[in-house]
Amino acid sequence: MSDILKLTAADLSAKLRSGEISSVEATHAHLDRIAAVDGEVHAFLHVSDHAVEVASDIDRRRAAGEELGDLAGVPLAIKDVLVTTDMPSTSGSKILEGYMSPYDATVVARARAAGLVPLGKTNMDEFAMGSSTEHSAYGPTRNPWDLDRIPGGSGGGSAAAVAAFEAPLALGSDTGGSIRQPAHVTGTVGMKPTYGGVSRYGAIALASSLDQVGPVSRTVLDSALLHDVIGGHDPHDATSLTDAWPSFAAAAREGATGEVLKGLKVGVIRELDDTGFQAGVSESFRASLSAMEAAGAEIVEVSAPHFEYGVAAYYLILPAEASSNLAKFDSVRFGMRVDVPGGTVEDVMAATRDAGFGDEVKRRVILGTYALSAGYYDAYYGSAQKVRTLIQRDFDEAFAQVDVIATPSAPTTAFRLGEKLDDPIQMYLNDVTTIPVNLAGVPGISIPSGLAAEDGLPVGIQFVAPAREDARLYRVGAALEALLVDSWGGPILDRAPILGGAR
Asked: Active site: which residues (predicted)?
């Protein structure tokens, strides 16, 4: 495997700026990697025809002395939930097969403006509904650590692309864990920013009060560098915060010194015991806490009594909002159309949705429509929103005592393809630790914490901070990352098979 592929985005950026590597070379290396391994991984739904052309333009501008952004010339994978003008945007669904958007998502536009080179669009569970990327209409993505296992979801394509060294960076979206849970099972870093901290304009909506776009990478610093590019206010997004954000890259670099851990109060949730968690996940979590404690952190037990209701509340709020958001796919304005000779508009709409939506999407739309129906709204959707408020209060009370909260990023390592497809409840429980973060709108990050003893597969630790304190997560994440990398003797992905190419 090319040495270029093993570089972090930060290191690749430095070599691009120094002229040691050209963007065209870096782009060709990653396109060659995609050609070599993606037939087995299936991280990408579409590979760009323009990547080398874009890279060549970056090289020309750099040679002309133009001042370029930190990540100019670095390749980027884009989750297919984000619309693009030069590549199809399907959200993993047949109903949008071949759809070409007339505009770029704001985060895509910002990435282009910063000089990143889009490599292609990554696979995902249809309309981001899933925890395994098995619900894609275009076939599952496979985990590069073990091709018989899932890469997480809904953003398994982005995580697998980064883990398989097909891209140094990727964009994802996180509605209930869709960046962080794939990071957990692929040994990558996944960040869900504060709600409103990154524009959702051009992200095909699933649940508008929960969706958040964020970065996927192999190091905390790399995620911070991409977050600096895509973050900030967007007038096109009514939920976009107007805050002035600090440099997240500077926060990550500060955290890597380890000083941030001295006196840091790390909350551990009393109600989140080992029940339902794989032994190797719990062991890795405790080992990470011990490493932080040895470096000067204080571990504090906090209570979050309403977290146990998070999954139930989420699976009423999300389907309700999804049923509203997906109503736009009506066979009339855009997307698939199944004609019914002699049929009414309603007949065509029903036939199109039947053919265009997969089973998981249908399941959630039906559930959400029922939860919003007359006579049931208060009992279901209204009650779920009340639980959401209680979870937000749990966070507020906990953060009055601690700086960050730590949890395992998910209960288990990557399970086998097909293992949970027929058991939606077990599939949904994969997000038990990530869902409360979305319900509260606070930021969360997952970083690799080790390998489970039982199966040698990656495990992640999640840190959560108060709203708008994303920089705090980059400091803490980078500090623990530095501790663990030292103890492992290198990045965790250096110990991965990655189709025999990473050792």
From this structure: 79, 154, 178
Polymer length of the chain: 503
Q: Which of 79, 121, 192, 420 is catalytic?
A: 79
Which residue out of 23, 154, 323, 409 is catalytically annotated?
154
What's residue 500's pLDDT? 58
- Give all strands of the β-sheet with 213-217 in edge-to-edge order: 44-47, 117-122, 75-79, 169-173, 213-217, 189-192, 444-451, 458-464, 404-408, 265-269, 298-302
pLDDT reported for residue 121 = 99
Identity of the amino acid at 50: H
State the alpha helices, DSSP H only, in 187-219: none
Cα dihedral 22, 23, 25, 30, rounded to 10, equals 150
154 is catalytic: yes
What are the pLDDT digits (tens) for 39-66? 999 999 999 999 999 999 999 999 999 9
488 pLDDT tier (thresholds 50, 70, 90):
confident
For residues 6 and 102, give the distance between their C-alpha atoms in angstroms, rounded to a whole number.
Answer: 35
Q: In CATH terms, is domain 3-270+399-500 a member of 3.90.1300.10?
A: yes
> Is 79 designated active site?
yes
pLDDT digits (tens, 9 = 90+) for 471-487: 999 999 999 999 999 88
Domain map of the chain by residue range?
A: 3-270+399-500
The number of helices, as runs of H, and strands, as runs of E, in the chain is: 17, 11
